[in-house]
Amino acid sequence: MPSASSIPDHVEPGDAPRERGASPRVIPFAVFILFIAIEPLAAGVVVQPKMALYSQWTDYLNRLPRSMQEAIRSTIYHALSTSPPTQITFAWAAGYDYELTIWDAPDTRQTRGGITILIKSRYPDDPHPLSR
């Protein structure tokens, strides 16, 4: 999605809301709750209400196929549950149908690893021919 540059390209543990006095490396239970299947993927942690394109991003995330939403949610949950929490980079590219690619690079002696979530889809204002 072209407006992908409007959100942070990654989420780090320090970006998550914290309980008073909690270390940035300790993820409070309240953050984990946001990634259980009851809550929508666009629950306000990755894309926050104060962001300029909040409504566009939440609409886009909620249009993703449910299977992709659940794969992204479980990846975020996993990243938050590692010690230390694993950095996630979000990326978007144009595509015909919805596509999701996730890769997990381990830390090395020279570089920090992390998870990348690549979402491919049509431009948000380009409806799929079968939905017309």
Description:
By secondary structure, this protein is of the alpha+beta class. The chain has one domain (2-123). The chain is built from 3 helices and 4 strands; from the N terminus they run E-H-H-H-E-E-E. The chain has helices at residues 29-33, 54-63, 66-81; strands spanning 10-11, 88-94, 99-105, 114-121. The protein has a 4-stranded mixed β-sheet, with helices on one face. A hairpin with an 8-residue loop joins strand 3 and strand 4. The longest helix has 16 residues, at 66-81. It is globular. It starts with 9 loop residues before the first strand and ends in an 11-residue tail after the last strand. The model is unreliable at 5-11 and 13-25 (pLDDT under 50).
Helix and strand pattern = EHHHEEE
Global mean pLDDT: 76
For the biggest sheet, the summary is: 4 strands, mixed
**Count of domain modules:** 1
Number of helices: 3
Distance between the termini: 20 Å
Shape: globular
pLDDT under 50 segments (min length 5)?
5-11, 13-25
Q: Tell me the fraction of residues in β-strands, as a range.
A: 15-25%
Percent helix range: 10-25%
Q: Report the structural category.
A: alpha+beta
The largest sheet has its strands arranged as 1-2-4-3
The gyration radius over C-alpha positions equals 15 Å
How many E-type strands? 4
